[in-house]
Amino acid sequence: MNDIVNCPGLFSEFEALRWEAGGTRLALEPVVEEAPIALVYNGLAYAVMMATPGDLEDFALGFSLSEGIVGNADELHRTDVVTLDEGILLRLEIEPARARTLESQRRNLAGRSSCGLCGAESIEQVLRHPPAVVSPLRIAHACLHAAFGALAQRQVLNARTGGAHAAGWMAADGTLLMVREDVGRHNALDKLIGAVLRAGMRLDTGVALITSRASFEMVQKAATVGVPILAAISAPTALAIRVAHETGLTLVGFTRAGTHNVYANGERLTG
Predict the structure, then answer these.
(1) CB 90 within 8 A of CB 79
(2) 126, 154, 170 — which closes off a domain?
(3) What pTM did the predictor assign?
(4) Tell me: the pLDDT tens digits for 220-253?
(5) Rounded-to-integer distance, Cα 98 and Cα 76, Å
(6) Between helices 56-66 and 185-198, what is the axis angle to 10°?
């Protein structure tokens, strides 16, 4: 388990005037941190994302893969994390051929923590078409709920601050293996993708759980890296469902209170 609460710099405490039971009192409240994270590939400034400043090596790898900047983990050769006065710089070294492609289509606008596509310069950049998701994975419906129950218990940063999304990695038997949290739902998923690969696991053998809606960007990220099943606690969007059908990704929404909806490619769910 990644005990994120014990990591420095992920939340701060502020005084707040709390109203309750008809009265007010001064309280010291924990608040999740949000910082600009600049990603620079082979000296080329690419994007600035607003994110919680933790698990940044996981984020660097996951973002690079889910955005199609590199094709596999081996193409990211080095990650240097540089702390600046007002943010964090991620210096990334990738394959020269990938860097040349990146230079021709780079996006250099800021990305808010709520935005997975901020700074994209054309419709073609946004509507990428990931390859087909191929996986023999089969899981029982009930496993999703067991894993989501475990995920709720392991959202330690959100439990402390109330301000973080989580993404969890579930094995085929329903075991929750890994959790990553961030103020942005896209960042949490990118961190999870990177963490799974850095731990030596394969992305086609498990399920990504997210504590947010299943928007188009989330489905596109998961499909791009070959995740076979994406299960969300909230609703999908219409475009997300269409992309799931197109790529062969199994998309599940409203996974809560013993029920869920399967919107695309339900053959991977059994029982």
Answers:
(1) yes
(2) 126
(3) 0.91
(4) 999 999 999 999 999 999 999 999 999 999 999 9
(5) 10
(6) 100
46 shares its domain with 68: yes
Task: Reply yes or no on whether 115 is catalytic.
Answer: yes
- Chain-centroid distance, C-alpha 256: 20
* Domain tally, the chain: 2
| Catalytic-role residue among 7, 115, 118, 143 | 115
CB distance 233 to 256 below 8 Å: yes
154 and 75 together in one domain: no
83 and 159 together in one domain: no
Q: Report the C-alpha gap between 165 and 177 in whole angstroms.
A: 17
Domain annotation covers residue 22: no
Same domain, 199 and 148: yes
C-alpha angle 242/245/250, rounded to 5°? Answer: 115
CATH number at residue 74: 3.10.20.10
Among residues of the chain, what percentage have pLDDT more than 70?
A: 89
Residue 92 belongs to domain spanning: 35-126
**Pick from 100, 126, 152: which residue ends a domain?**
126
Least confidently predicted of 97-111, 143-157, 160-174:
97-111
Query: Distance between CA atoms of 16 and 266, rounded to whole angstroms?
Result: 47
Tell me the two tokens of residue 44.
């080329």
Indicate whether 143 and 246 sit together in one domain: yes
State how far the Cα of 219 lies from the Cα of 144, in Å rounded to an integer: 17
Name residues whose C-beta falls within 8 Å of residue 187's C-beta, 6 or more positions apart in sequence: 49, 51, 52, 59, 63, 113, 165
Give one word for 21, left, alpha or beta, with left for phi > 0 and alpha for psi -120 to 50: left
pLDDT tens digits along 57-71 = 999 999 999 999 999
Map residue 173 onto helix, strand or coil: coil
